[in-house]
Write a structure and sequence with these properties.
Elements: H1 2-17, H2 19-27, H3 39-68, H4 72-97, H5 103-131, H6 135-163, H7 189-218, H8 222-247, H9 253-281, H10 285-311
The structure holds fe (ii) ion (3 copies).
């Protein structure tokens, strides 16, 4: 249990540590919605989005554990909070960061991300897991790398379809969902760190693709919207989930609530107040207000989780 709690703390730390990776992949493309905020505000928004996307995926997994163990009110609390993190917080911050661009820009960004995962990140993680003797993680990373190559190819075809009416947008990959049962970490060392980093990438990809899907639907490209949405489901319910089982993300309801309280407390007391102050100092008053408001909401989440823990 203690070992798991240490891992849970590491999850929170990693949320901040891996943010520059997401920032790099999301910021390198031209977007029609390019924000007018300072670079520091945009970077903070991307860091926050990384945490929000991860919180959504994590709370969805915690809701599953609560439901399986007959704690339906805890399950509802996790599900409801997860929705706020994704539909409100991530979505609002995405506007500040200028995440969503034209369909062409969004597909180009997706191709870059998937290609990097397929050819660099996951093969590297697989080699590291093999070197550390964690075969189960090496096998999973290798399998996911192959999926990401399929995603990259599908997005390339979708991009071609925008300029060539004879090209058909492929259907999304079929999802093979994994249930995130309570587990202990299967690996240690750098492989455990890599699993957590990969989970953040998958959570971010799923959140991003759903916004890209909304945009494609609005611009009259339903097949591209369907491809983004279907791929988002693979990232969350297959890739994130498989990695979460190996990383030991889900514990008992008590442990999960404590993990959630720790994350929300960090966000409400430290991260969002800091981001709000920095945005104000950079002259981004609307962004400063947004960070402040979201920080207040995270405080309410912490309180609700603490009350649920008390009632357990
Ligand atoms: Fe992917
Ligand atoms: Fe993925
Ligand atoms: Fe929250």
């Amino acid at each position: 249990m203690l070992k798991w709690r240490l891992t849970a703390t590491a999850v929170g730390v990693i949320a901040v540590m891996v943010a520059p990776v997401a920032a790099a992949s999301a910021s390198g493309h031209p977007t029609s919605g390019e924000p007018t905020v300072a670079a520091s505000t945009k970077a903070n928004a991307l860091t926050a989005m990384n945490g929000e996307a991860f919180a959504y995926a994590k709370y969805s997994a915690f809701a599953g554990q609560a439901a399986r163990t007959g704690k339906s009110s805890v399950a509802r609390l996790f599900t409801r909070t997860a929705k706020v993190e994704l539909s409100d917080h991530f979505a609002e911050e995405a506007k500040v960061a200028g995440l969503v661009g034209s369909d062409q820009a969004n597909l180009t960004d997706a191709i870059t991300g998937e290609t990097d995962e397929a050819t660099t990140m996951y093969p590297g993680f697989a080699a590291q897991a093999t070197a550390e003797g964690c075969t189960v993680a090496a096998d999973l990373f290798t399998e996911i790398a192959a999926d990401e190559a399929v995603h990259a190819a599908a997005y390339k075809t979708a991009l071609a379809s925008l300029s060539d009416a004879s090209v058909t947008v492929p259907a999304p990959q079929v999802v093979d969902p994994v249930t995130i049962m309570a587990s202990s970490p299967a690996c240690s060392g750098q492989t455990q760190v890599n699993l957590l980093a990969a989970m953040h990438g998958e959570a971010f990809a799923q959140a991003k693709y759903n916004l890209y899907a909304d945009h494609a639907a609005k611009t009259g490209h339903p097949a591209i919207a369907k491809l983004f949405r279907g791929t988002a489901r693979v990232e969350l319910t297959e890739h994130f989930a498989g990695e979460a089982v190996l990383a030991g993300l889900v514990g008992s309801n008590r442990t999960n609530l404590k993990t959630a309280i720790a994350g929300e407390t960090y966000e409400t007391k430290t991260m969002y107040p800091t981001f709000s102050r920095e945005a104000a100092a950079a002259g981004d008053r609307a962004a400063a207000r947004m960070f402040w408001t979201i920080g207040r909401e995270e405080g309410a989440h912490a309180h609700a989780f603490a009350a649920a823990l008390h009632r357990l």
